[in-house]
Structures are given as C-alpha cells and as structure tokens.
Automatic annotation (TrEMBL):
Species name: Runella slithyformis (strain ATCC 29530 / DSM 19594 / LMG 11500 / NCIMB 11436 / LSU 4)
Signal sequence interval, chain numbering: 1-18
Domain of life, source organism: Bacteria
GO molecular function: dipeptidase activity; para-aminobenzoyl-glutamate hydrolase activity
Record-level GO BP terms: folic acid catabolic process
Gene3D superfamilies: 3.30.70.360, Zn peptidases
Lineage, opening ranks: Bacteria, Pseudomonadati, Bacteroidota, Cytophagia, Cytophagales
Protein name as it appears in the record: Amidohydrolase
Peptidase M20 dimerisation domain location: 206-298
Transmembrane segments: none
Keyword Methyltransferase found: no
Stretches of the chain forming a coiled coil according to its record: 16-46
Alphabetized UniProt keyword annotations: Coiled coil, Hydrolase, Signal
Amino acid sequence: MKIYCTLFLVLATAMLRAQTSSNKDHENAIKEINQKEKQYGAMAKQIWNYAEVGYQEVKSSALLQAELRKEGFKVQAGVADIPTAFVATFGEGKPVIGILGEFDALPGLSQDSLPVKKAIGGIAGHACGHHLFGVASMASAIAVKNWLTQSGHKGTVRFYGTPAEEGGAGKIYMVRAGLFNDVDVVLHWHPGDGNSANPSSSLANKSAKFRFHGISAHAAGAPERGRSALDGVEVMNYAVNMMREHVPSASRIHYVITNGGKAPNVVPDFAEVYYTVRHPSREYVVSIWERVQKAAQGAALATGTTVDEEVISGVHELLPNEVLAQVMYKNLKTVGGVKYTPEEVKFAEQISTSQGMGIREIASAAQVDPLSSEGGGGGSTDVGDVSWAVPTVGLRTATWVPGTPAHSWQAVAAGGMSIGRKGMIVAAKTLALTAIDLFQDEKTIAEAKAEFEKRRGPGFQYKALIGDRKPALNYRD
C-alpha cells in the first residue's frame, strides 16, 4: 500500500510540475505578444494601406518575409511558381507545425478607417481582414520560435505566406507542390465578428472566366453581319439562372460580366463573364459545374459565337478536426475576447446603425462562443485543400464590430483601427498557445491524425479541382 501511495504522489507531483510549466510557457508567450502589440499593429496597418490584390501582394509579402528573416527564420520565397508565396522555417525535427498567413485585399472596396462610408482613393480594401491574418500568424510563429529556443524543445515551426486566397486559391498550388507533405498539424485563423474555434466545414467552389468571341459590325448599319459576344454571355446567364431552380438548395452560383463590349453602336466581338459555383460538397460542385459549361456551349451555339473557358480556382470544403478544435478552443477561452474602450464603443455603435448591421450585440465581441460542430460558414477558402492534406484547425476572432458581414466597407473600416488590431492579438495568442501545447503532446497529435484519416476515408487521394493549370497570376487584371 505504501508503495502505491508513493507512486501516486510521484505521478501527481510530475503532473503538477508539467501543468505549472505549461502555464508558465503560456504566460511568457502572451507577455511577449502583448509587448509587441504596437509593432504588430503598425505592420498590419501598413498592409492595410498597401491593399494589394491577389498575386500582386509584393510589398505585403516582402514586409512579412523581412520580419521573419530578422527573427532567425529561414525563408524560401517564390514557392509553387508564385512570386509572392513563401515558406519560413525555424527549428528542426518533429513535430512540424505549420501556421498559415494571408495578405491579399479585395478589389473595389477602398474605405477609410471611419464609421461612415468614405473611400480613400485606392482600388482595393482589406474587407476580409487578411492584413490582420498575416501579421497575427507571423506573431504567433515568432512567439513559438522563441519558446522553442528558450525551452530547448525539439520541433519545427513553419510559417506559410499564402497569396490570393480571395479567388486565386494560392494554397492549392502550395499543396500540389508538396509543401505540406512533412507537416504534422496546420493552424490558421480568420477575422470575423465574433470569437469561436468550431470544427466546422465550408463551401467547396470552382470558378472560371468564360470568354465569348463573335463578329463585330455596325449595330445600326449592318447588324445582320455581326454576331454579338455579349449575346452569348447573356444567353448563358439566362440559362444558368433558369438552372437555379434545379440544383441542390445549398448551392450558390455567382457571376459578374467583366467585359461586355465598349460602345453600344458596335456589335461586340468579345465578352467575358466570371462564374463561381459553391456547395458544401466538392462532388456536387463538379456536377453543377458541368451543367454551367453546357449552358455556355449552348449559348455559343444559339448566338453564332464561340466560347472558351479558363479555370481560375477550385477549392475543397474544409475537413474538420474535433481533436484539434478542443485544444484550440481551450486556449481561446484562456485568452478571452475583445474588450472595447469607450471610444471603440462609440465607433461600434455608429457602424451598427449603418445599413444591414446590428445583427449581434456589441458586447458579444468580449465573449467566446460555445464550442459547436454544427453548421459551417457560407464562404469558401483554399484552407480547405490544406485540410485534406494535413490535420488542420482554425479559429475566428472579433476583428470587426459584431454584426459586420465580411466583404463590406464596415469590415475595412474596423480592420484599419484599434478594434481590428485587438482581435488580431487575440488570434496571435491563441495560435501560439495551441502550437506550444501540441509541441508537448504527441498523443493529441496522434489522435488528430487518426481522426483525419478516418474522415478522409480509405484510399483517399488528393485531386485539385483546378487540374494541372499553373497559378492564375493575372486573374485580377
């Protein structure tokens, strides 16, 4: 009996020491990020000001690379045939934990950091908060690097600079190039209007530009000699709109006419329409896409034109991982939400009264949503492809005023001031604590891999929805 009591005491003491050590590691990482908050906020504001669209994020990518090099990371730039993509690595051996960072802006959403709509003259804006995304992920990678150095713990932290998430799907090419083959776990986050770490999915999608070619002619003097490429686009759009009634209800189909001709008195010999199809399952995306292609072919036949297609993007749905979500959620609860100053409350109240806002209480920014595996986001992300290559987990933090939709001027405004920065710091801390925990817990990593393999199913082989095309570096032109 005495032997068992002694053994129990030894085990209990060891567990207490491990817990105390873990708490100290967490405290140090949080302290470090707090000390650098102004520096990281300034970097995020720089990228917010750059507002560079997909595959054109030259200054934004360079800024992050320079900081990581200064911190001792080995940086490999221009990976996967993408000039602005890079991988920054520190440490050696297993486990290898990757952290994703994004930095592209959206076209047509220039906005000042004010609670009223006011463009500032640029062509784009960070309406999805990727200026915060890249910097927070970098900050967490640096904190983890410092922990590895100070603790002497074995392992590798790797930051992935991933361009063109907004429609260009840069991560697909990085997955296809094998850049995640030796990674054990990937962590990511995304700006939002609340704080959560749910193991939910997303929508798979596929997009392409359909280009119609016709014959130009004088629209009044000789219309019978022309064949309108714009007619081809409009017939295609009409056919697809009729199709909406006959696709699964969870489907989404969007398009914009990117070129419809230049003058009404000239029959246009060229027109272009840009399509995206979404569904919670990539299999349905593929089947719906085939019908969209037939609509394009039929439109060309009906209007005496020809049509060609350039696939721009295609992403998998997110593959959830509940084992990793539990770890991420625990650390998000430890860090807590975003607390507003009186000035920020005033800003938030003005944002909340703008059109279409006020869905959530402002106070919810300080809360962490309960863990839930139900439902999923209404958007798509190329993180989905990463999640089918390696166990992946993410979170959202309140970088925007609660109730703010992504891709809005309200999101740009909050992301350019202190509210956005505070949410960014919550994300940086949560990512850092989660990585530190995983470095010290081989069992959890093994359990996450087992869940990953079970969800993928036997014999799974990754196949990119974009086929073998090269990166669409000019898709924003």
